[in-house]
Amino acid sequence: MLKLSPTSVACFRSCPRQYRFRYVDHLGDEYGGPRPYFTMGNHVHDTLREFLTVVPLERRNMETISALLRKNWRRYRVGFRGPEDERRWAEKALRQLASFVADHDIRVRPYLVEASLEAEITRSLVLQVRIDRVDLEPDGTLHIIDYKTGNTPDSSDWTQLHLNALVLSRRVRYPVSRASFIYLSSGSVDTVAVGGSVLDQARWDLLLTARSIGAEKRFSPQPGAACRRCDFRPICPERARRRGQAEKAGAVVGEPAGSGLPEQPALALW
Prior knowledge:
CATH topology of the largest domain: Lambda Exonuclease, Chain A
Strand content: 15-25%
CATH architecture of the largest domain: Alpha-Beta Complex
Largest sheet: 6 strands, mixed
Distance between the termini: 48 Å
Number of helices: 9
């Protein structure tokens, strides 16, 4: 039985070797490590979950969401280079939440929040998803919402939300009509309609990926933008090969630059 998720599907399509390291050899714990953007993203998601499910409507305001972020942030504080780096990431999180409170309907009562679901696509394939939020629309259809705390891309990749919709359509009685990314760093929202043809295409593309995974023998590296933040650079054969070529040519090979710090904060968290 092959179990896939939107993350593992994206990983295989981006680099089969990284997929092998993470999902076949299970080396994530050995080579992975805390990252400030993961810590910040987790705290933002946890804060929004509590804000929209636990906090009464009359107390949903900036003061409350700031207090929730402070509480969540103190639970774990990993991946930072020091106090000043941590402060900058915390301020970035607070700015994103302030934008959410100012620009979105904070009186909404979501149908689902942080829902982990799975569905059997075929007898040999299970799709597992985790959905940030689902709203039940007045017309009786579902709207899938995903929060993004990173940089806003030039165009949205809908693979994740289409797969989320595929699972949701098999687990609940309401049809899925829309899916949206809320890009918290810019405040922008990107929405797409979801219908039967979209779900059929998502299922077909998933089956093709599953078949490719099942037939894969070499899991060849696929160099690209994902290499910059890949946990498995120390053991990647492509990186070693390219380093060897550069050394033969007399070039100096440096490490990829680390992730840049967010801009100077405008809000005070602590």
